[in-house]
Model the fold of this input.
Amino acid sequence: MNLTPSASSVVEGPSAPVTVPRHVAIIMDGNGRWAAKRSLPRVAGHRAGAEAVRRTMQAAVDNGVEVLTLYAFSSENWRRSEDEVSDLKGLMRFYLERELGTLQKEKVRLKLIGEPAAFGNELYDRLQKAVAETASNDRLTLVIALNYGSQAELAAAARALAQGARDGTVDPDTIDIGAIENLLHTRDLPPLDLLIRTSGEVRLSNFLLWQAAYAELHFVDTLWPDFDEAAFAAALAEFSRRQRRFGGR
Ligand code: FPP
Done:
């Protein structure tokens, strides 16, 4: 992944031309509050959140977005109760099984970032299988961040470069932005154009810190389970109105 301006596609609409972001990422926040408002257990919020994933994936396909990256489980989420972690794992397994057909039908390629092996062999093998089975799909790349943390990702890149310098395979003088990007989990993805966070929280929470350097940020009060096609379209419309300068004028 590089940070040079992304060639977002321009679609001529009935009035002004619309710029569609190539790569959209979402911090899906607010499942717990959605459930609490209804006096439901947290898992009900996550279940409703999985439906929002389905709607949003379809909206991304329909709008011609190339990559949709979703923060499904952060490296800090292990601090949640054992029950909640197990519910989230169960939901991912269920979603994978139920949605694999849709991924194939809509030509969606699944990709993982983070350290998903920590979820145990059973879920990890299923995830890897779905990644392999959808590898040649070319309409949308759905990237699920699982056990992902941006600081750990950057530390691993620094470690790899330092080891290379020690072994003599990396000349420290040649370490540039590209050298770091080539070691990030997002290295084969287009630059991040738009980062959305739901539920009214206004922070990045260790998600794609490097990649968001020139991304447009969009914060909405909507709780993730209520996020839908209209909310996604509103975010794209807002993106289209932004003037991106990438540090220039
Ligand atoms: C944040 O809400 C949400 C999560 C930590 C998990 C996201 C998971 C899903 C949307 C479901 C399954 C995912 C896939 C890819 C099928 P929160 O629990 O932090 O909400 P709160 O801040 O209101 O408590």
